[in-house]
Design a protein that fits this description.
Elements: H1 3-25, E1 27-36, E2 40-41, E3 46-49, E4 52-57, E5 63-69, E6 74-79, E7 83-88, E8 94-99, E9 118-121, E10 124-127, E11 136-139, H2 151-158, E12 162-165, E13 168-171, E14 184-187, E15 190-192, E16 203-209, E17 225-230
Parallel strand pairs: 1-8, 14-17
Antiparallel strand pairs: 1-2, 1-5, 3-4, 3-6, 6-7, 9-10, 11-16, 12-13, 14-15, 16-17
Length: 236
């Protein structure tokens, strides 16, 4: 085999490899609907690509549209109220995801996102870095927060969008006539009943959600949501 033929073979192999890589990275638009009990449409459901949060949520009719890489194998939906489920993504670019109240996706972490994806909200595309769903938030790793020893003092003094009296927290602009006005408390993706034992020095960030931004939490998020992420996976 002469050198010229050998080089042609190498160039062909490299070209094929690059083409396969381009196909995997090419993006497609997937649309669908999320339902509960195969009947009611689920608004505010978080849409997942390969069990990663895309920051896309369903609209008031339970519909979504998202642009993902061709390499994505599953499209899922997650809500705290109706559970989670996923559908295998093959050649089908239109999917319907039925929820039944169970959490079929066991290893999903709500706070984990894929910053590479382009996302759609309300059928319009935005970059994740330009998408903000919080009413107020802080990066608690900054030095100025290290002096706090009480989580309620930190919330009261530094977190926009909340009012704190003792251990009572309210999200500004949110009230309920027939139910408690206490916001939903979510720590590291898990709903908790109290944050009394959280040391402010363990906190990585705090965000406050209300209205449509809290829709993923269903009726439990109607009076607002306080999201707290800790610096470690386990409290010290």
């Amino acid at each position: 085999m002469n050198v010229r033929v050998f080089l042609l073979i190498v160039i062909s192999l490299v070209g094929c490899t690059q083409l396969q890589g381009q196909k995997k990275n090419r993006k497609v638009v997937v649309s669908g609907t999320v339902t509960f009990d195969n009947k009611s449409k689920v608004a505010g459901a978080m849409i997942l690509a390969d069990r990663i949060n895309t920051n896309v949520v369903t609209d008031s009719l339970g519909r979504f549209e998202i642009e993902v890489r061709r390499s994505v194998k599953t499209i899922g939906a997650f809500t705290y109220e109706y559970g989670s489920a996923e559908i295998a993504l093959k050649d089908n670019l239109t999917v319907n995801i039925p929820l039944d109240g169970t959490f079929a996706i066991k290893d999903f972490i709500p706070g984990q996102t894929d910053d590479d994806e382009t996302i759609n909200i309300g059928y319009s595309k935005v970059s994740k870095k330009n998408n903000s769903t919080s009413v107020g938030s802080i990066d608690a790793t900054e030095d100025k927060y290290s002096a706090y020893t009480n989580i309620y003092d930190l919330l009261s003094s530094q977190v926009p969008g909340v009012q704190v009296s003792g251990r009572t927290i309210r999200v500004r602009g949110v009230t309920s006539i027939n139910a408690s006005n206490d916001p939903l408390l979510v720590v590291d993706g898990m709903v908790v009943s109290s944050i009394d034992n959280i040391n402010p020095r363990e906190v990585k960030s705090i965000s406050v959600l209300k209205g449509s931004e809290a829709a993923i939490y269903g009726s439990r998020g109607a009076t607002g949501v306080i999201l707290i992420d800790l610096k470690g996976s386990e409290r010290k």
